[in-house]
Each structure stands twice: as C-alpha cells, then as structure tokens.
Automatic annotation (TrEMBL):
Domain Phytocyanin positions: 25-128
Pfam family, one: Cu_bind_like
Name of the protein described by the UniProt record: Phytocyanin domain-containing protein
Key words, A-Z: Copper, Metal-binding, Signal
PROSITE patterns: COPPER_BLUE, PHYTOCYANIN
Bias type Low complexity, positions: 134-151
Keyword Manganese attached: no
Originating species: Hibiscus sabdariffa
Region (Disordered): 127-151
InterPro entries, alphabetized: BlueCu_1_BS (IPR028871), Cupredoxin (IPR008972), Phytocyanin-like (IPR039391), Phytocyanin_dom (IPR003245)
Extent of the signal sequence: 1-24
C-alpha cells in the first residue's frame, strides 16, 4: 500500500511539473496603462519590465485600440533605430497576445509613425525556467495556465522546456512497470 501511495505522489509531482513548464505567466504590458504613447515618461515600458523575470512560455498582452496602435516584433537594431523596415511579426488588432517562445532578448515597438520614438517600445529578456516576478494577483500578471498565440517558429529551448516533463514522466512509468 505504501508503494502505491509513493508512486501516486511521484506521478502527481511530475504532472504538476508538466503543467508548470507548459504554461507560463501572462503579463499585461504597461499594467493598467496599456500599450500607448507614454506621455512625459519615455521610460515607461523599460521601468515596467525592470522587476519582471520572463520565461519561455510567458505571454505578453498588449492592450491597445485597433487602428491607433499596433505591436511589431523587431531586431535589436530596428528597436534602437525605431525602424519598421524588416519586422519579424506585426499584430494590428488589439489586444495582441504574444507568447515568448525562445530565450534571449525580444524587442517590440509600435510601428505607427513617431510612436516608437516617443517611447512606445519594449525590450524583454527571456530566460528558461519559471517566471519569478510579482506575486500572483498583482497588476500585470495572471496565474499560469493561460495559453497564447505564438508569433514565430518554435525554438529548441521551448521544445526542451515542453518535452522535459514528458521524458521524466515516461521514465517514472517505465520504473513502475
């Protein structure tokens, strides 16, 4: 009987690990301010991102009015220059949900004329692992478990983060049998 309880506990831990690594936290960019031209505070989005640790699988929600703003993922050079010449992806309907699907720096700008140069741009660093930012229920985050859309191709790190729990669960099942 004790062996069955231990095995059930192991499977429960593995299932929890699977859910944690499959879904990430959801962040509302700019919190209640949303995705706008920051009036008098060009560092609004840099300051917003400063206390957050983004992970593969997290979702950024850009709240904006369709037709007044958009969100374009761009390269670092395009971000620095506020250039829309070679965007990676652009979402024109608000609110836009973007899943962070790889580690490294991600750069976002509003592609409307003069919006980026007025401070409507965001840079985030994405790491592997679980999100570790503000406590659940605070503005700008929601509990893990809200899947989003992925703007680009899956990366190897996202694949590893998704498949690792499956591998661990498979090993546990083999050991059970």
């Amino acid at each position: 009987m004790g062996g069955k309880i231990s095995m059930a506990a192991l499977l429960l831990v593995l299932a929890a690990n699977l859910l944690q690594s499959t879904y990430g936290a959801t962040y509302t960019v700019g919190d209640s301010t949303g995705w706008i031209i920051p009036a008098g505070n060009a560092d609004l989005y840099d300051n917003w991102a400063d206390n957050k640790n983004f992970s593969v699988g997290d979702v950024l929600v850009f709240n904006f009015t369709t037709g007044q703003h958009n969100v374009a993922e761009v390269t670092e050079a395009a971000y620095d220059a506020c250039s829309v010449a070679n965007t990676i992806s652009t979402q024109s309907s608000g609110p836009a949900r973007i899943t962070l699907n790889r580690t490294g720096e991600h750069y976002f700008i509003c592609a409307f004329p003069s919006h980026c140069s007025s401070g409507q741009k965001l840079s985030v660093e994405v790491r592997n692992g679980t999100s570790n930012s503000t406590a659940p229920g605070t503005p700008g985050t929601t509990a893990p478990g809200t899947p989003g859309t992925t703007p680009g191709a899956n990366s190897a790190s996202a694949l590893v983060a998704t498949l690792s729990p499956f591998f661990l669960m498979s090993v546990a099942l083999v050991l059970l049998c």
